[in-house]
């Protein structure tokens, strides 16, 4: 047996901390598209990877992911946006054939606690329409840019007179 030279050696295994945790998973209809919001609490600045999938007929189908490969049938119809503490999946031309259990899986780089996973059952007839307010928040940067550029546009218009 070898005695420990320093009893205060850090044990990396004991220093594991949750870097992010999924707080809420919700779904709504935005026109003809399905929107799935995966809200999380982030305690690190490490890059975040995600995977949205659907389970139907007892099979998992990857819709959009940075963790694994998305299935061909979803590639052209799905896109994801990331905001602060929110990852949104948009699935265009949503129909009843897209119903099933949707899963959001998040993992922060160097987070050794494993992936965070949350599920939601999506049935087209039971979905509510997405609130206009959240759409406004989603497009705030464009709105802000437009408002900030108005004086500039007016100045250019004034000069052209």
Descriptive report:
The protein is 20% helix and 40% strand. By secondary structure, the chain is α+β, with helices and mostly antiparallel strands. It has a 4-stranded antiparallel beta sheet, with no helix packed on it. The longest helix has 21 residues, at 140-160.
Which properties best describe this structure?
161 residues, alpha+beta, Immunoglobulin-like, four-stranded antiparallel beta sheet, 3 helices
What is the secondary structure topology, with strand pairs?
Layout: E1 20-30, E2 33-42, E3 48-56, E4 59-65, H1 72-75, E5 78-83, E6 86-91, E7 100-108, E8 116-122, H2 132-138, H3 140-160
Antiparallel strand pairs: 1-2, 2-6, 3-4, 3-7, 5-6, 7-8
Number of individual domains: 1
Q: What would you say the CATH architecture is?
A: Sandwich
CATH topology: Immunoglobulin-like
Quick one: how many beta strands?
8
Distance between the ends: 90 Å
Which residues sit in consecutive blocks of at least 5 with pLDDT less than 50? 2-18, 133-139
Strand order of the largest sheet: 1-2-6-5
- Strand coverage percent: 35-45%
CATH class descriptor: Mainly Beta
Number of helices: 3
Specify the structural class. alpha+beta
- How would the global form be characterised? globular
Rg? 22 Å
Largest sheet: 4 strands, antiparallel
Instruction: Report the average pLDDT across residues.
Output: 78
- What's the helix-strand series? EEEEHEEEEHH
The residue fraction in helices comes out at 10-25%
Q: CATH superfamily, please? A: Immunoglobulins
């Amino acid at each position: 047996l070898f005695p420990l030279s320093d009893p205060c050696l850090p044990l990396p295994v004991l220093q594991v901390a949750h870097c992010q945790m999924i707080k809420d998973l919700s779904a709504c209809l935005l026109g003809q598209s399905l929107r799935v919001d995966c809200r999380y609490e982030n305690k690190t600045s490490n890059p975040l990877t995600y995977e949205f999938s659907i389970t139907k007929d007892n099979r998992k189908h990857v819709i959009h992911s940075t963790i694994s490969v998305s299935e061909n049938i979803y590639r052209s119809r799905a896109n994801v946006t990331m905001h602060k503490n929110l990852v949104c999946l948009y699935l265009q031309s949503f129909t009843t054939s897209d119903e099933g259990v949707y899963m959001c899986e998040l993992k922060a780089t160097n987070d050794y606690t494993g992936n965070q996973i949350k599920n939601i059952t999506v049935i087209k007839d039971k979905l509510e329409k997405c609130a206009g307010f959240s759409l406004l928040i989603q497009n705030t940067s464009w709105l802000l840019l437009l408002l900030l550029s108005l004086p500039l546009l007016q100045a250019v218009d004034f000069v052209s007179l």
